[in-house]
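Run log // design_07
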């Protein structure tokens, strides 16, 4: 368990030698030698008891494309598949995170979505996190990879495993129709959308969920930020409070994820995800591994600002 904590903590702390931190925490390593790395990993795997620290040290300091080069060199020298070798050498949570890193971000996300809907029952929490916190561009790539990996359309699988307004919202997001950000601020449309959200919810008896879905799944993130701010001039409640009053269950969680992060996973979502699930380590692993090459630096910064402690400290305690 301590090794897993160290591994996840390392993923959240890497700066890749950059003078200024960027949104990813894992970046392309300088002076990269895939043959040397492959040799070190081969030795680590063959060592009695497995040298897990070396495996962690290498794979958390290389980008996905570099990890794939290492795998290629490993197979050249050992005539064995590196992923298969890692599977045989590792176990438990460390195996899960290492193998997760050997997938691209889209492959990892697609696999997590598949895992949340296959078999009996649905892991709604994972499904909400994956779909509601990904950008339209990311969802397009996830859909492509999902079909490539599982020979099925993501929309069909989501539709077959969910129902009602919750299904409608997820399918609207999966269609990836969200507008691109624009340098032109359309104040009239901002006002129209804010009023429409109010009139579809708090102002009326019952909720016109379809209107909420359309606005929250199709408008750009900067536009929505201004809409939610403008919304407070119409409603006695902010958008989050309105959601809690109007809808419940998985639909409520989905809308709150969209509004809290404006369609992105941000720092204040993490305590909720970590504290409201039995599989705390699984949740932290999924977030860190899936976002370390995307926006984990941003998540870290927001997390510390809102929670007065670092994500590293939280991971150390939780895993």
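design_07 sequence
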């Amino acid at each position: 368990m301590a090794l897993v904590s160290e591994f996840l903590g390392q993923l959240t702390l890497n700066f890749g030698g950059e003078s200024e931190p960027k949104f990813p925490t894992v970046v392309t390593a300088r002076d990269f030698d895939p043959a040397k790395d492959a040799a070190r990993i081969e030795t680590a795997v063959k060592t009695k008891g497995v040298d897990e620290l070396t495996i962690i040290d290498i794979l958390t300091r290389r980008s996905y494309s570099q990890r794939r080069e290492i795998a290629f060199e490993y197979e050249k020298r050992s005539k064995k598949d590196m992923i298969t070798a890692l599977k045989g050498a590792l176990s438990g949570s460390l195996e899960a995170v290492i193998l997760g890193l050997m997938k691209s971000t889209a492959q990892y996300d697609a696999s997590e979505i598949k895992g949340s809907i296959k078999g009996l029952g649905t892991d709604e929490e994972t499904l909400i996190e994956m779909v509601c916190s990904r950008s339209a561009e990311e969802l397009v790539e996830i859909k492509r990879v999902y079909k490539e990996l599982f020979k099925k359309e993501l929309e069909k699988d989501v539709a077959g495993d969910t129902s009602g307004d919750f299904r409608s919202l997820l399918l609207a997001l999966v269609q990836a129709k969200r507008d691109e950000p624009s340098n032109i601020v359309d104040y009239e449309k901002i006002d129209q959308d804010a009023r429409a959200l109010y009139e579809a919810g708090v102002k009326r008896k019952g909720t016109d969920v379809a209107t909420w879905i359309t606005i929250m799944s199709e408008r750009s993130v900067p536009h929505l930020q201004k809409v939610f701010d403008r919304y407070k001039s119409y409603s006695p409640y902010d958008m989050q409070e309105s959601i809690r009053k109007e809808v419940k269950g998985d639909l409520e969680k989905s809308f709150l994820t969209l509004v809290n992060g404006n369609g992105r996973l941000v720092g204040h979502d993490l305590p909720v995800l970590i504290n409201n699930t039995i599989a705390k380590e699984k949740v932290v692993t999924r977030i860190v591994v899936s976002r370390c090459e995307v926006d984990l630096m941003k998540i870290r910064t927001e997390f510390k600002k809102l929670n007065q402690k670092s994500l590293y400290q939280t991971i150390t305690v939780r895993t």
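The longest helix spans residues 64-78.
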